[in-house]
Amino acid sequence: MKARFTVEYHTQWGEDLYLVCQGKKYAMEYCKGGFWTVEIDKFTGAMLLDYTYEVVRDGLVVRQEWKHHSRQAKRGETSFRDAWNEVPAGGNGFLREHSTALFDKKGFR
C-alpha cells in the first residue's frame, strides 16, 4: 500500500527535508507554498507509531524536530499531513524533547 506524508516547513536555500521512519530516511520533494511531501510504496501502519522529519544541508542534519510523531491510521487513510514539532513556547535550552528529561533537573550542572 502507498502512503503520502506532507509537512509544512520553510527551508533556506540548499536545505532538503527527510522523513525518518523505522531507521530509514525518505527524501521529500518540495511543493509550492512551503510544503514538502514524500510517497512511500511499502507502507505499514506500524510506520505511524514513531516517525520524525529532519532538515539536511550538504549531507549533514542541521535541524530535527522537538519530538517524534505518533498516530493511529483510520481505516483506509493513506495521506498524512503534519506540522513541524517546534520547541515549546517559553523556550527550552534543549534541541530534542528526550534531552529535557535527562538534564533539565534541579541541581544538574
What this model shows, in words?
- The structure is a single chain.
- It is globular and about 40 Å long.
- It is built from 1 helix and 8 strands, in the order E-E-E-E-E-E-E-E-H.
- The longest helix has 7 residues, at 97-103.
- Helices cover 6% and strands 39% of the residues.
- Strand 6 (51-57) and strand 7 (60-64) form a beta hairpin.
- The strands form 2 sheets. A 4-stranded mixed sheet has the order 4-5-1-8, with no helix packed on it. The chain has a 4-stranded antiparallel sheet with strand order 3-2-6-7, with no helix packed on it.
- By secondary structure, it is mainly β.
- It has one helix at residues 97-103; strands at 3-8, 15-21, 24-27, 29-31, 35-40, 51-57, 60-64, 79-83.
